[in-house]
Specification:
Blueprint (H helix, E strand, L loop, with lengths): L29 H20 L3 E2 L5 E3 H4 L15 E3 L5 E4 L4 H10 L8 E10 L11 E10 L5 H16 L7 E7 H10 L8 H11 L2 H13 L2 E3 L5 E3 L5 H11 L6 H11 L4 H19 L7 E3 L13 E12 L5 E12 L5 H4 L5 E7 H10 L14 E3 L7 H13 L4 E3 L6 H10 L4 E4 L2 H6 L1 E6 H10 L5 H6 L4 E5 L3 H13 L1
Parallel strand pairs: 1-5, 7-10, 14-15, 14-16
Antiparallel strand pairs: 2-4, 3-4, 5-6, 6-13, 7-11, 8-9, 11-12, 12-13, 16-17, 17-18
Protein name: Histidine--tRNA ligase
GO molecular function: histidine-tRNA ligase activity
Family: Belongs to the class-II aminoacyl-tRNA synthetase family.
Length: 507
């Protein structure tokens, strides 16, 4: 063709970086954040009632301050995310809130009241293999007592855990706070020949195996105590290498629970027979059982259960878990218990790492995301999205009057009403869609006619949607002629009119 050239089609431009979320991490929207904040407020109320005060520690600690207590020591960086600073010092993202507390107490030991009672909420990070329900970043909410050697502190923590679950809406009978003692397990390990330091790694494998009892059952735990176990994905986990008699002794320990605390304690005494440390652990459990009974929590809320172990090695005495006992549908559709949402125990040696002297401590940690998931399942008001109401949106119909629209928004905000001015460049229909997506209760509309008359139009979006459903049978012209849930008021009455709409939504 004269005056023309053949052009090859242009390849589309590269969109740039691929937007992708790292595995094991999650974004959170406003509804989830609001529900979390409501739940944290209820938990904080109980902790405060028990006399605990707030404390905040950094996300990052020196790696050696965190110690070597992780449940996945065989993974890169020993289960933590680590890096070096300019001084070539190794730093790590905290993997729990307990190790930073131990550092804080040791660093400020002389000025802190003792016992030191604190609560902390925050994100923790694990460099572990992610999977369904297993995240590399998650939130915990802890409460700890440092400087109290008596198991009375452990009993109190367990009773507070029960009160906390009920405060957030878990019904009595749908949960149990279960207590065991690491000293009893130490007695069992002594009986099977794993008590000395040369077997530290195998002991940790045993702890981690028992900690999976609820999920894998006795058969799965037996495999992990022996040569190892292959999971559903085909991954093989190396076991502790125990022989048949050793495995039987460990399983007997986990299955020692009787019909009541007295029978359970009697069974445990038989399992640890011959071990002074094991007998000491049983005695501590007996004291805790008596304290729990005296306070009236022995009605099923707080129980002695030998199956509770806790995977972290730094526990030195009583250990406990808060388990939700109602059932949900498992991956195979079969009913399964929801399981643990919190846990903890006594860690008398953790602060001592810094001070060279024993400093008794005990505490527990709530898995915030897991507990919130449970509240959603039972339809707790805390987890519902009822409180997530978007802002009142002031529409912009005349961009030459933007200053006046700012004045309307400012008037609403000055009255304590959450409001925003539409800042995009779209027309009225798109602005209305925007307000819907923002979950706005109403919009404020003022064109040139309304401004000349000194009025504004208020459109109740919730009532409008309800009326629209009822008006579907009208013909199209009649439907469009309706101004559903929309009314006019003098501009001076803007705040009062908007408050009326908001009050109707709350009522």
């Amino acid at each position: 063709m004269s005056g023309s050239q053949n052009h090859k089609p242009q390849k589309p431009q590269s969109p740039g970086l691929l937007a992708r979320q790292p595995r094991g991490f999650a974004d959170r929207g406003p509804a989830d954040i609001a529900a979390t904040e409501r739940m944290l407020a209820h938990i904080r109320e109980v902790y405060t009632l028990y006399g605990f005060d707030a404390l905040e520690t950094p996300f990052i600690e020196y790696t050696d301050a965190l110690g070597k207590f992780l449940p996945d020591q065989d993974r890169p960086n020993e289960g933590v995310f680590s890096f070096q600073d300019d001084d070539e010092q190794w730093l790590s993202l905290r993997y729990d809130l307990t190790a930073p507390l131990a550092r804080h107490v040791a660093e400020n030991y002389d000025t802190l009241p003792k016992p030191f009672r604190s609560y902390r909420a925050g994100w923790v990070f694990r460099n572990e293999k992610p999977g369904p329900g297993r995240f590399r970043q998650f939130m915990q909410f802890d409460a700890d007592t440092v400087g109290a050697p008596s198991v009375s502190a452990d009993a109190e923590i367990c009773m507070m855990a029960a009160d906390t679950l009920e405060k957030v809406g878990i019904a009595r009978g749908d949960y149990a706070v279960k207590i065991n003692n690491r000293k009893v397990l130490d007695g069992v390990l002594e009986a099977i020949g794993l008590s000395d330091d040369a077997h530290a790694a195998r002991r940790l494998v045993v702890l981690r195996a028992i900690d999976k009892l609820d999920r894998l059952g006795a058969e799965g735990v037996a495999l992990l105590l022996g040569e190892g176990r292959k999971d559903e994905s085909g991954d093989f986990t190396k076991g502790a290498g125990l022989d048949a008699d050793q495995i039987a002794r460990v399983l007997a320990f986990t299955q020692a629970r009787g019909t009541d605390a007295a029978s359970t304690l009697a069974n445990l005494e038989k399992v640890v027979e011959g071990s002074a440390r094991g007998i000491e652990g049983v005695a501590e459990l007996r004291e805790i059982a008596a304290l729990v009974a005296a306070a009236g929590y022995d009605d099923g809320r707080v129980q002695i259960d030998p199956a509770v172990v806790r995977g972290l090695e730094y526990y030195t005495g009583p250990v406990y878990e808060a388990e939700l006992t109602f059932t949900i549908a498992g991956d195979d559709g079969q009913p399964v218990r929801f399981g643990s949402v919190a846990g903890g125990g006594r860690y008398d040696g953790l602060v001592a790492r810094f001070r060279g002297e024993a400093v008794p401590a005990t505490g527990f940690s709530i898995g915030v995301s897991r507990l919130l998931a449970a509240l959603k399942i039972i339809d707790s008001p805390i987890a519902r999205d009822t409180d997530h109401v978007g802002p009142v949106v002031v529409l912009v119909l005349d961009r030459g009057e933007i200053a006046h629209y700012h004045g309307l928004v400012s008037r609403l905000r000055g009255a304590g009403i959450r409001a925003e001015l539409y800042l995009g460049g779209a027309g009225m229909r798109a602005q209305m869609k925007y307000a819907d997506r923002r979950n706005s209760p109403c919009v404020v509309i003022q064109g040139s006619d309304e401004r000349a008359q000194g009025t504004v139009q208020i459109k109740d979006l919730v009532a409008g949607a309800e009326q629209a459903d009822a008006a579907r049978e009208l013909d199209n012209a009649a439907y469009k002629a309706q101004r559903l849930a929309q009314f006019s008021v003098p501009e001076a009455d803007l705040v009062e009119a908007v408050r009326g709409v908001l009050g109707a939504r709350q009522g």
